Amino acid sequence: MKFIPDRFVLLMIGAVILALIFPQLGTSDGPLRLGTVTEWGIALVFFLHGANLDRQKLVTGLKNWRVHLLIQTTTFVVFPILGLILYFSLRQTLPEFLLLGFFFVAALPSTVSSSVAMTALARGNVPVAVFNATLSGLLGMIITPALMSIVTATGETNFSVLDAMVDIAITLLLPFILGQLARPLIKTLLVKYKSITSKIDRGVILLIVFSSFAESTAGGVWSQFSLVEFVVTIALVLVFLGLAFSYTIFASKRLSLPLDDESATVFCGSTKSLANGAPIAQILFAGNPSLGLIMLPLMLYHQLQLMACAVMAQRYARKTEEMLEAAAADAPAS
After folding, report:
1. Structural Rg of the chain based on CA atoms
2. pTM of the prediction?
3. Packing angle, helices 259-269 and 65-73, rounded to 10
4. Distance in angstroms (rounded) separating the CA atoms of residues 204 and 222
5. pLDDT at 308
6. Domain CATH number, residue 89
């Protein structure tokens, strides 16, 4: 089978290469003024997220509280505990900005579109996935900066958690609420131009990636990062991902969840959002020359989770199909 790289992955790689070659173009005070451009772009993206949210889908998935509790505790309790273990156990081995990046991955909310899409592909419980993905994104605006304050208080990077929450509320939550309020007026337009709104989302992420890596290049941060550390980063990302899958599958089976709920738990509980993570990083680490490298574990995790989830979704779909066929074979003939 021929492997064809995802177009967005190629564009992200291109943004990184461009930032390495022309770093001055991507700095916040450079000729493109990307600091201001990305701020407005982030606000627009979260306005569109709010406008696209169908509240009825959330209500549909509200009742399955055991699954919701498992997914949210995996995202905001189990993952951060793993992140803290890694952060404090490897402080004498890996650079501070790299450990910060790993804990940032651990503290982030789940993906929205990817987890729902993978659950649908797996023939899982889509309403549960929609509810938890949306709830996770909203909780992450508060919980992620609070979790980050745990490690920044002991490390080289410091920020006020209250200031960070206020900045996130103004930059992300306010546009989201405005989008939700505007939904009745622009819902038809959003459906008609769905392809354009998705391109805006990805375009802003690409700008953030380009700007972040340009700032790191201009600040000479890459000279502090070796090939060995890059290989270690990939290895640790794979370990993180493997533990996430293992825990969500194990916990689902311990709770005797049906297969459709298990697949929703796996895809919502083990994934981390680049769409939310990139804007949050831009706010939390504004002005930090190591921002590009802090985001590196998230970028790697994002790509590897998509590939792993695609394989697992197909397996869940086959299991579901086999169960349905077996049930049909066992059913008495009418």
Report:
1. 20
2. 0.78
3. 30
4. 23
5. 86
6. 1.20.1530.20
